[in-house]
Amino acid sequence: MADHLDRIRIVLTNPSHPGNIGSAARAMKVMGITKLYLVNPKEFPNDHADALASGAVDVLRHATVCGSLSEALQGVGFAAALSARRRELTLPAENLREAATQAMHLAAHNEIAFVFGNETFGLSNEEVMQCNLLIHVPTNPEYCSLNLAAAVQLVCYELRMAAGLTRFDDWPTPPTLATQEQIEGMLQHLEATLIEIGYLNPANPKRLMPRLRRLYKRATLEVDEIDMLRGILTKTLASKRSQ
Amino acid sequence: MADHLDRIRIVLTNPSHPGNIGSAARAMKVMGITKLYLVNPKEFPNDHADALASGAVDVLRHATVCGSLSEALQGVGFAAALSARRRELTLPAENLREAATQAMHLAAHNEIAFVFGNETFGLSNEEVMQCNLLIHVPTNPEYCSLNLAAAVQLVCYELRMAAGLTRFDDWPTPPTLATQEQIEGMLQHLEATLIEIGYLNPANPKRLMPRLRRLYKRATLEVDEIDMLRGILTKTLASKRSQ
């Protein structure tokens, strides 16, 4: 598709209520988005989910069930997390409308994911830290309990609006982003290197790796930059060993 | 409230499923909109509606149940109809985003309604003709079956976005619109006048009044204009009778 909505994944982590999965599938398909990923759904497949999906049962049938968020994010260059929970800001936050526009721009060259948490508990900090961005949906400060499928509806609507309204011709060519696996690979390479050069003590690692992860996630690294960073690490080790 | 979201009514006509009423109430309150009008709900109040309303049961408790759409639109200056059904264009159609911005501008001086049809049958032409505008929500042309509560969620989100994002200071002062009752009164006055002057034959009225209604609804008449039009009608009759 020219509008790249086929590059969008909707990822529901630990959904408790099958009805929400069905309603989310309907909400997606109405906006032309069909790639659903389910991380450890409590009940799936499920008749109630099928009933609420209405004419979008095909989205459920083709859904990818995963055992972890990192599995659902394989191949993804840009992942945005929805979270109503107040937390120390682990990632930069952006309004849904701007995030959707940014995502559709990147979708020309990259796989994109929008990640939703469990109905009650939201996303864990570990899950959020696998994403590049936190999304803020403006809500009533006195009652911000957005239903899961309703949140999916708003995200998919804004993505369709961004795909249709925004002329990206005038924008700079979107970069080809590193996938989540490439970033993880680089971080492991970095950690091993830091241990070997004696900067990181595995017996007392402190918050060093989480802070580095946060930095590199926020930066939405490009493939070329991963190559460059790993080149530096390889060189660092080689020069140390040759001493 | 300074943002005038308290001037917005969400009107559900003939809703069949109590769950949708509850989900709609939650969708409204999350966005800070609390005035719910129900025209001939099939089942209300209802436990399933309460369950799905979650923390928005107060919206259901304060909902106004009406016997007709015109009752729900009493005092309303601007009513927008949501309809997925293709119909000969009876009213001007506008994208949801633009309509929400227009509505929040008018809300400074006027009561506003967003009118939703039955889950299966949508709105009748008669119901649509009581509104000023048809709203278009962009959807997948191959599957446009937007759930009722999901549609309410999108409308309330766009209203909140418009209230928060748009600075109306630079806009012209919004007009004070005629209410639906004032327009109906004028139309009855007009019809009686047209009959008396022999332009409209009650035995063979053709489509004259529906066409005039369409014209004046589309025009979103102001109070002053109603006074003016009725002044003309009064004068027309007086001059005829004095012949």
Automatic annotation (TrEMBL), chains A, B:
From the UniProt record, list the reaction(s) this protein catalyses.
cytidine(32) in tRNA + S-adenosyl-L-methionine = 2'-O-methylcytidine(32) in tRNA + S-adenosyl-L-homocysteine + H(+); uridine(32) in tRNA + S-adenosyl-L-methionine = 2'-O-methyluridine(32) in tRNA + S-adenosyl-L-homocysteine + H(+)
Q: Which domain of life is it from?
A: Bacteria
Q: Name one GO cellular component term.
A: cytosol
Its Enzyme Commission number(s) read: 2.1.1.200
Query: Which InterPro entries does this entry report, sorted A to Z?
Result: Alpha/beta_knot_MTases, RNA_MeTrfase_TrmJ/LasT, SpoU_MeTrfase, tRNA_m1G_MTases_N
Q: Which GO terms describe its molecular function?
A: RNA binding; tRNA (cytidine(32)/uridine(32)-2'-O)-methyltransferase activity
Q: What exactly does this protein do? A: Catalyzes the formation of 2'O-methylated cytidine (Cm32) or 2'O-methylated uridine (Um32) at position 32 in tRNA.
What protein name applies here?
tRNA (cytidine/uridine-2'-O-)-methyltransferase TrmJ
Task: Name the species this protein comes from.
Answer: Chitinivorax tropicus
- Organismal lineage: Bacteria, Pseudomonadati, Pseudomonadota, Betaproteobacteria, Chitinivorax
